[in-house]
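Inputs:
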Amino acid sequence: MLKKGIAWVYTCIIFTFLYAPIAVLMLMSFNESQYNSLPFQFSTRWYNELANNQTLIDSSLTSIYVAAITALFCVILATMLMLWIVQTKSPLKKWIDSLIILPLTIPWLILGLSILLLLNLLNWDKNFYILLVGHIIISLPYTVMVIKARLQSLDFSINEASASLGANEWTTFRKITFPLLFPAMLAGGFLAFVISFDNFILSYFLIPSGQSTLPIEIYSSIKFGFTPEINAVSTVLLAGTTIIIIFIVTVMKASLKFLFK
Amino acid sequence: MNKKWWLVSPPVFLLISFCVIPLFIMVYYSFLSDGTTGHLTLQNYLNFFQKGFYLKLTWKTISTSLLVTIICILIGFPMAYIMAKVINSGKNIILIAIIIPFWTSQLVRAYSWQNLLRDGGILEIILRKLHIIGPEPLGILFTQTAVIIALIHIFFPYMVITIYMSLEKMDTSLIEASKSLNAGPFTTFWRIILPLSKPGIISGSILVFVPSLGVFVEPRILGGTEGSVIGTVIEDQFFEIYGWNFGAAVAFILLMIVFISTTVLSKFAKEEV
């Protein structure tokens, strides 16, 4: 009993540490004062200003646009890769496996600057396609992991059964594999969306001039002066991400059995 | 039928052209004297290794990452142990609650510490009410301490989850067996629990140590003038000074530190298990 008591106290301390800064940020987004000063005085002023701040709205739209395209490509590419990986006996499999996780093992800072140097060498201007490619590369490993977890829990004899009943490969994919894989594709897509939407570093290096994404706007506001709308926009951002993550976890619970007991 | 190269070639093409090749281009730039037009030279590396300033920053980056990793192990291990072996109900909720901040914007989480740690901020007011500090200002924001706190906050979930996964696999009867053989709690921990959770601790350490080496946002936002690390030097070279060749050299050195530490830690994990 004492052991459990200590355990819960420790858990509470850890959660205070994890959530206190976020809670203070959210609280301050409803505070009237421009300098985050106390005493607290409730106001929705910053949300109203947010609704009228065209720069922040435009950059949020750009972020959503980039994240949506990134998610779509990640799902398609990850599904292609995984359908190949689970069936192949190619000696290249090991190499391709480590190629996929390579972007996870290199700091994003280095990935961003090296793509920038590629553009410089080829004498290309920064453009949206390259920005998308950067986002796809960093999000792809996560989508792959989600889809892989699901594929490994599937029984492949079902595909063989389908083939032996005379269905061609495309029909098998459409009628069997795709419906079974769909929840993982959805979850993987949302995960890629979140990673791309939150990503600051890659966008920072690759964004074409005159454009900006929400994280870039937030960074420059923090760096160059105080704008209390940042509390409000961060709160909206945190709330959105939290909803998506809870959604992913719910969808993927069956495949994440190794984590959730 | 087994070939199906069309399935695998687009993603592989993408990764090779925009992840592998750019790294080689980075190495190429690091040996050029100026832009793409200059001649081949070692000057960028000599500049780095001859100036005590950069060597000191390198050491500071490595030691900060080490400190962050060690603190993450120390506070993460008990949390993982509690989740795996002590609490029976509510485990999934705790797990989800640990995962959620982990996926929210790193930038926003770093920024959120500004509000809390600021002089005259909430933490200072609470500590003063509790008579833990006197009337003097808190003085944590814009120091190395603030950066370390934020980095622990950002990378801590990796450590808890990897240790939790290895503890969860461990058979609880081993602990019972050790107790019934009259081993004290310390012996049980040292001889049974710690060795069996080593793979989790090591992979957690890789996941905390490696990204800590490459940060530049947190030191910028929270570290003030004390905040320079390798990451901020690289950012300056690319965004302020336009010394891209020197920046590429520093980035390559950082990449080597990352590779060496990952290799060493993975070797360590394979030993004696």
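The CA atoms of residues 81 and 191 of chain B lie 16 Å apart. Flag for discussion at group meeting.
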